[in-house]
UniProtKB/TrEMBL annotation, chain A:
<dbReference type="Pfam" id="PF01061">
    <property type="entry name" value="ABC2_membrane"/>
</dbReference>
<feature type="domain" description="ABC-2 type transporter transmembrane">
    <location>
        <begin position="27"/>
        <end position="219"/>
    </location>
</feature>
<feature type="transmembrane region" description="Helical">
    <location>
        <begin position="118"/>
        <end position="136"/>
    </location>
</feature>
<protein>
    <submittedName>
        <fullName>ABC transporter permease</fullName>
    </submittedName>
</protein>
<keyword id="KW-1133">Transmembrane helix</keyword>
<feature type="transmembrane region" description="Helical">
    <location>
        <begin position="178"/>
        <end position="196"/>
    </location>
</feature>
<keyword id="KW-0472">Membrane</keyword>
<feature type="transmembrane region" description="Helical">
    <location>
        <begin position="90"/>
        <end position="106"/>
    </location>
</feature>
<dbReference type="InterPro" id="IPR052902">
    <property type="entry name" value="ABC-2_transporter"/>
</dbReference>
TrEMBL record, chain B:
<dbReference type="Pfam" id="PF01061">
    <property type="entry name" value="ABC2_membrane"/>
</dbReference>
<feature type="domain" description="ABC-2 type transporter transmembrane">
    <location>
        <begin position="21"/>
        <end position="208"/>
    </location>
</feature>
<dbReference type="InterPro" id="IPR013525">
    <property type="entry name" value="ABC2_TM"/>
</dbReference>
<keyword id="KW-0812">Transmembrane</keyword>
<feature type="transmembrane region" description="Helical">
    <location>
        <begin position="216"/>
        <end position="242"/>
    </location>
</feature>
<keyword id="KW-1133">Transmembrane helix</keyword>
<feature type="transmembrane region" description="Helical">
    <location>
        <begin position="131"/>
        <end position="158"/>
    </location>
</feature>
<feature type="transmembrane region" description="Helical">
    <location>
        <begin position="170"/>
        <end position="189"/>
    </location>
</feature>
<feature type="transmembrane region" description="Helical">
    <location>
        <begin position="99"/>
        <end position="125"/>
    </location>
</feature>
Length: 267, 254
């Protein structure tokens, strides 16, 4: 079996675990009225701030930014859910198995970017029009692709952080929250990236959300296909780099864990 | 009072060992960064008070909510719940003491938010009525502990509600007028908003910063009243739950 096929199988089995986990966590009712309701309230919270500023342009900006942000929040849950493996005592077994940890963990939390994509699309297409953000039917497929790209590429950022949190699982919620809040602050969600000092802008360019969000705003403003494709391309590149970094981090972790046996069976 | 103090100290010791339990100390400065940046970018200095104060109340609410959800269930998972319940100390007092500790920790967030606004944006939030401001913060943290004890009992009665724990954040931030004052919310929402102590806290904190504080005692009485209502309901509910599980012998299974 080739390495590629083997990796694909590992991701598939791991993703089956993710689906089971998601089903155990939510029913369709608790997801809709619990999770989705909470995220829509978050978007409304920021959108009303735009209205309170008496600026429809601000409200429009905040609705688009925070709607896309919802999938980022959910994708970053990979940091927390990866750490669950430690609590469940499966980490030493995973470290000992011949499978590469990166593919195990890539599949393990795939429920979050998928669910996050749905959440973001409901916010953009369902809540957006209430605040004056409308989309034509022709824009919807592009929007779906860009939101999915946002969720998956941010998931790769989360995977990188997850590799470190496995060694300090008590800090899982802090790392996850700080991760998405930094993105919320600097990636153009609430204010343009140009608002921040140049060095912050450089950091923002390394995060896929900056590019995908710019592309979504481009779609809303009927920008040219070339501009949008370029932004999406940068996001793909940034996401791939983060996945590569996550692979290196997980490999080092696996080697270190095998040598020192430092993966305990509990927190 | 000794039970309350011991529970208070125990929760603080627990927070020191598990950094995740005080994650708001890390997230509050970032929320401040986000909110103040929106106000500065929109050239709205009048928005500063809300931008600095909102993360404080958000931290208070989310930390108490998180603890309310975890408190009893973690004791049950560790196998310590039966022993705590068997002691002569009132369990509701233990719960209230622990929740007051986390509510107090959240008050540190004000200093953090103030520092972030000043160091990152040069925005200095001055407090026109310090006494009203401090009274409001203290009463709000006590009201939070009371409200959280009610939620804590509710989470025990309905373990499935834990999934919805996260849901109780942003809808309450909206209802509480944390960023957008209650007066600017739709008319039909305002009566509901006034049932949430956060709405009184956020209005009073803003008033104490920008002045005039107006009928501050009305707002303070509302915060205390809603907090006491939560604490009493929580104590009654916890008492009822304990009587039931003692009778049926299902404490570990509830």
């Amino acid at each position: 079996m080739s390495a590629l096929t083997s990796s694909f199988h590992v991701v598939r089995y791991s993703a089956a675990n993710a689906v089971a986990d998601f089903r155990a966590t939510y029913t369709w009712r608790s997801w809709t009225f619990g999770w989705l309701g909470r995220m829509l309230a978050q978007v409304t919270f920021f959108a009303t701030m735009g209205l309170a500023l008496h600026s429809s342009a601000s409200a429009h900006y905040l609705v688009v930014g925070n709607s896309v942000m919802t999938c980022v929040v959910e994708a970053m849950t990979v940091v927390t859910s990866s750490a669950w493996e430690r609590r469940q005592g499966t980490l030493p077994l995973l470290a000992a198995s011949p499978a590469r940890l990166i593919w195990v963990f890539f599949g393990r939390s795939l429920q979050w970017p998928v669910s996050g994509t749905v959440t973001s699309l409901v916010a953009l297409l369902g809540l957006g029009p209430l605040f004056g953000v409308t989309w034509s039917p022709g824009q919807v497929p592009v929007l779906v692709g860009l939101v999915l790209l946002t969720a998956v590429s941010t998931y790769c950022v989360g995977l990188f952080l997850a590799a470190f949190v496995l060694s300090a699982s008590n800090a899982r919620n802090i790392v996850s929250n700080v991760g998405y809040l930094v993105m919320m602050a600097i990636c153009g969600v609430q204010v343009p990236v140009s608002f921040w000092p140049d060095w912050v802008g450089v950091v923002a360019q390394s995060l896929p959300l900056t590019h995908t969000l710019a592309a979504v705003r481009g779609v809303a403003a009927h920008a040219g296909a070339g501009d949008i494709a370029l932004r999406a391309g940068w996001a793909v590149l940034a996401g791939a780099c983060w996945l590569g970094a996550a692979a290196v981090a997980f490999t080092r972790l696996q080697i270190h864990a095998r040598r020192n046996g430092h993966f305990s069976f509990a927190e | 009072m000794r039970v309350f103090t011991a529970a208070f100290r125990f929760q603080l010791a627990l927070a020191r060992r598990k950094p995740d339990t005080v994650h708001v100390l890390v997230t509050a400065p970032l929320f401040t960064l986000v909110f103040v940046s929106i106000g500065v970018h929109a050239h709205r200095p009048d928005f500063t008070a809300s931008a600095v104060l909102a993360p404080v109340l958000m931290s208070l609410w989310s930390l108490a909510l998180l603890t309310a959800g975890d408190l009893i269930s973690q004791d049950r998972n560790r196998g310590t719940l039966e022993a705590i319940v068997a002691t002569p100390a009132r369990f509701a007092t233990v719960v209230l003491g622990r929740l007051t500790a986390v509510a107090s920790v959240a008050l540190v967030c004000f200093a953090e938010s103030w520092l972030v606004a000043w160091s990152c944006f040069g925005v200095v939030l001055t407090i026109a009525h310090p006494l009203v401001f401090v009274s409001c913060l203290v009463c709000s943290s006590l009201a939070m502990a009371g409200t959280a004890s009610l939620l804590s009992a509710a989470f025990v009665l309905m373990p499935s509600a834990r999934v919805l724990q996260n849901t109780l954040t942003y809808p309450f931030y909206l209802l509480g007028g944390l960023l957008v004052p209650v007066a600017e919310l739709p008319g039909w929402l305002r009566p509901l908003s006034r049932l949430v102590f956060l709405s009184w806290s956020s209005d009073l904190l803003r008033a104490s910063v920008s002045g005039p504080a107006g009928h501050w005692w009305t707002a303070l009485a509302a915060i205390v009243g809603l907090g006491v209502a939560g604490a009493v309901s929580g104590a009654l509910l916890i008492g009822a739950i304990l009587r039931r599980v003692r009778r049926t012998g299902t404490l570990a299974l509830t």
